[in-house]
């Protein structure tokens, strides 16, 4: 920019709304307070006459001017900050149109009151920075000119991400984080309250289009959300929106926004600013071209020699108080954008002070004439300071101020006033997912939400224990809640699917938690195990006692009858049968799994073989008594022993084949019983198990048939009838065992087999030996040779 001694006339078409205060260094400002309204173009009039036909203001934006003026006053009154020169300012209105923004920008680059762009008619009032504008479009329009001169530009309004590239505007600094960060804040807020039934409203312009284009993908990525308006509304507002109206809308009803939540530019209250506002009057400062318009339209009165929109019969006294203005028009506390203007001025001042300090060692920076713009950039990018409100300020490397947004709850009142209540904070620099912090207890909701916190969903929550199932033909956030299947859970609300519990765990009855399964096996310590153990031991003792009785009376006729050795073999095998049932009780281990079924099968086969040998011996002995019978050579111990050995050998062979091919092994069953891990012995080969069991059944059936056919044969003491009953009991027990065994699981299945072993063994013991013990112990007179001969004659 060149400096010349200009003699040109003043600007023929100056911007009427400006605020100027001289200083050694000048800070420019582009604000948006006044709108231009003009009639339909009339080509009989000069364009200038049409342009400034009528002015309508947004009184609340006047605070931006006051914040800049207050900051300049603070700095100039501070002897420790820029002590050798003063700051001045020149604020111009943009009128919200590009051509006037360009005009204002070029005016700042010209000499005061002379519109000669690119030339300065003197060396005073050197422009060091420009603060503005209020919207992204105004900021960009100004930046296209300012960037040519490399003048730092600090934009105090929200800035679109489209223009956020550092290479496009390298000299632009943003006092507010990029607008995309607050859009993510909106998403986090929706997620926090689990609101999925939402509506989007945007202005019908480029900025509204950018809003929809940006937030729609964020909602899709972080959804599910539907863009449909609910019956009762909770307004979620971005910082571009504010409770600000034109001067003629003093009675605007804001009650419908009661309970709204907005992301507002972070603000704090610098000390002295409320007192500064109280001193404002129409004559508070010379050079304030905004004051007249603001005062008249804010108070609906006319200053002297003025035409004003509104009640022209009322004359302003000048003593009106700003605190009496409705809050929709003006606020006494510093707003977010005003706070950005205030901080922007202080940021520039601290950058200039840094230049002053760096040069003070060599020479004085008198009058500020030696300040180079590139130096301001250097110090702006690297500075950090605390302002008078207590906030720490610095710029990120991309030119964004390291600050965030306030989450504000708007509380409105019937008289049209409202209160801003800070209920949280949005920090764009926080880790993902932790950007938003809220104080829910401070939020006031709209009175239409009588239940408290609003619920905005198409479907109610699916609580733990259920999952969401989409409704056919409806929006993707409309769903029904399906209970989780058995063995599956959902621990959180609104889960899309239930998850399966690990194998060693099971779902509780509410299907919302996995519990560790209990270990289950038939233990010696539990009631059922104790009862079965006592039964097995008791029957074993009874069998041993019977054996002792028979030994003691081995010389009596009733013991000698029907082969004494077979009787002993049968008693010993029954004793082992009772004892082998103990192998089924207790935690299954490798050795017990290998032994219990095979031991039971072999021992029981010996017992059944002994019974079969007894019956066959009776039949052979009867046949041998007939004259000329060839069966006499089979009468004796050799036949009985041959039957026992051959029948038992076959069972032993089956068991050996079983153990060598697919032996039983220790196993766990995770699924048969809910909440249980069954420790069991897997039988290995089911076919071999039922082969062993089937062979015992075969022996029992053969014994039953032989005993039944020989039950009426004459003998001194015919056991056939008792064997018939014992085999009938045996077969009944094991026929009942098979379906019961197959229909039970875990310890119940083991208990069924133990009971079958004890019941069938007790049946053999009782049916065969109880009659003999009765005679031996209670009727010894019957246990003699004469009685048995007499009985034999009776039978013949």
TrEMBL record:
Localization terms from the record: Cell membrane
Residues in G-protein coupled receptors family 3 profile domain copies: 528-792
Domain of life where this protein originates: Eukaryota
Membrane topology, as annotated: Multi-pass membrane protein
Keywords assigned by UniProt, alphabetized: Cell membrane, G-protein coupled receptor, Glycoprotein, Membrane, Receptor, Signal, Transducer, Transmembrane, Transmembrane helix
Record field: transmembrane: 528-547, 568-587, 599-623, 643-661, 688-710, 722-742, 748-769
Pfam families: 7tm_3 (PF00003), ANF_receptor (PF01094), NCD3G (PF07562)
Keyword Transmembrane: yes
Name of protein: Vomeronasal type-2 receptor 26-like
């Amino acid at each position: 920019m060149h400096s010349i001694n200009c003699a040109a006339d003043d600007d023929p078409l100056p911007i009427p709304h400006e605020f100027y205060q001289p200083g050694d260094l000048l800070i420019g400002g582009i604000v948006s307070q006044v709108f231009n309204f003009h009639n339909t173009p009339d080509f009989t009039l000069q364009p200038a006459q049409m342009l400034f036909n009528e002015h309508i203001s947004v009184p609340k934006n006047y605070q931006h001017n006051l914040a800049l003026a207050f900051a300049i006053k603070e700095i100039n009154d501070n002897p420790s900050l820029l002590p050798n020169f003063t700051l001045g300012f020149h604020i111009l209105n943009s009128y919200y149109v590009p051509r006037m923004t360009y005009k204002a920008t070029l005016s700042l680059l010209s000499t005061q009151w002379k519109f000669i762009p690119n030339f300065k008619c003197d060396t005073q009032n050197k422009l060091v920075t420009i603060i503005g504008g209020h919207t992204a479009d105004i900021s960009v329009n100004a930046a296209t000119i300012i960037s040519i001169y490399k003048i730092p530009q600090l934009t105090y309004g929200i800035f679109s991400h489209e223009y956020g590239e550092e290479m496009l505007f390298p000299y632009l600094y943003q006092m507010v984080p990029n607008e995309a960060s607050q859009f993510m804040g909106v998403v986090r807020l929706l997620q926090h309250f689990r609101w999925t039934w939402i509506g989007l409203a945007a202005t019908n312009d480029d900025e509204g289009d950018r809003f929809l284009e940006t937030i729609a993908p964020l909602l899709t990525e972080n959804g599910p959300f539907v863009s449909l308006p609910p019956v009762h509304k909770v307004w979620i507002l971005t910082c571009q929106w504010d409770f600000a109206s034109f001067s003629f809308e003093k009675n605007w009803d804001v009650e419908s926004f009661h309970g709204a939540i907005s992301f507002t530019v972070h603000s704090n209250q610098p000390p002295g600013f409320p007192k500064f506002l109280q001193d404002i009057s129409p004559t508070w400062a010379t050079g304030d071209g905004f004051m007249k318009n603001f005062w008249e339209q804010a108070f609906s009165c006319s200053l002297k020699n003025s035409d004003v929109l509104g009640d022209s019969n009322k004359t302003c006294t000048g003593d009106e108080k700003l605190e009496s203005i409705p809050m929709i028009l003006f606020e006494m506390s510093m707003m977010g954008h005003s706070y950005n203007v205030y901080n922007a001025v202080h940021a520039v001042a601290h950058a200039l002070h840094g230049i002053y300090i760096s040069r003070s060692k060599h020479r004085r920076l008198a009058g500020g004439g030696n300040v180079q713009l590139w130096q301001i950039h250097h110090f702006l990018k690297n500075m950090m300071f605390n302002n008078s409100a207590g906030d720490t300020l610095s710029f990120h490397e991309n030119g964004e101020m390291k600050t965030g947004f306030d989450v504000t709850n708007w509380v409105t009142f019937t008289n049209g006033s409202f209160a801003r209540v800070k209920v949280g904070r949005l920090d764009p620099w926080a880790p993902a997912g932790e950007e938003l912090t809220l104080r829910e207890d401070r939020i006031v909701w709209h009175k239409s939400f009588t239940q408290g916190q609003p619920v905005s969903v198409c479907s109610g929550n699916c609580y733990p224990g259920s999952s969401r199932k989409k409704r056919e033909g409806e929006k993707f956030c409309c769903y029904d809640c399906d209970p989780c299947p058995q063995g599956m859970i959902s621990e959180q609300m609104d889960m899309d699917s239930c998850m399966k519990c690990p194998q060693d765990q099971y779902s509780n009855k509410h299907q919302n938690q996995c519990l560790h399964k209990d270990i289950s096996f038939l233990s010696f310590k539990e009631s059922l195990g104790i009862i079965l153990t006592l039964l097995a031991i008791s029957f074993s003792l009874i069998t041993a006692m019977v054996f002792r009785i028979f030994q003691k009376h081995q010389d009596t006729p009733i013991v000698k009858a029907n082969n004494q050795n077979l009787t002993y073999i049968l008693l010993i095998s029954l004793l082992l049968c009772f004892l082998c049932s103990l192998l089924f009780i207790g935690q299954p281990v490798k050795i017990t799994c290998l032994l219990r079924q095979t031991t039971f099968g072999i021992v029981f086969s010996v017992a059944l073989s002994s019974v079969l040998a007894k019956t066959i011996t009776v039949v052979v002995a009867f046949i041998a008594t007939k004259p000329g019978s060839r069966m006499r050579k089979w009468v004796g111990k050799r036949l009985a022993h041959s039957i026992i050995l051959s029948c038992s050998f076959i069972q032993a062979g089956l068991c050996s084949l079983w153990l060598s091919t697919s032996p039983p092994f220790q196993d766990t069953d995770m699924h048969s019983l809910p909440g249980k891990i069954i420790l069991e012995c897997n039988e290995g080969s089911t076919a071999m198990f039922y082969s062993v069991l089937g062979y015992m059944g075969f022996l029992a059936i053969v014994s039953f048939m032989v005993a039944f056919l020989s039950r009426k044969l004459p003998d001194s003491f015919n056991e056939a009838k008792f064997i018939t009953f014992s085999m009938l009991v045996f077969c009944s027990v094991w026929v009942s065992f098979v379906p019961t065994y197959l229909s039970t699981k875990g310890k119940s299945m083991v208990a069924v087999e133990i009971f079958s072993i004890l019941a069938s063994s007790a049946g053999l013991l009782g049916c065969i030996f109880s009659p003999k013990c009765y005679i031996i112990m209670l009727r010894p007179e019957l246990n003699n040779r004469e009685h048995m001969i007499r009985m034999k004659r009776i039978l013949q």
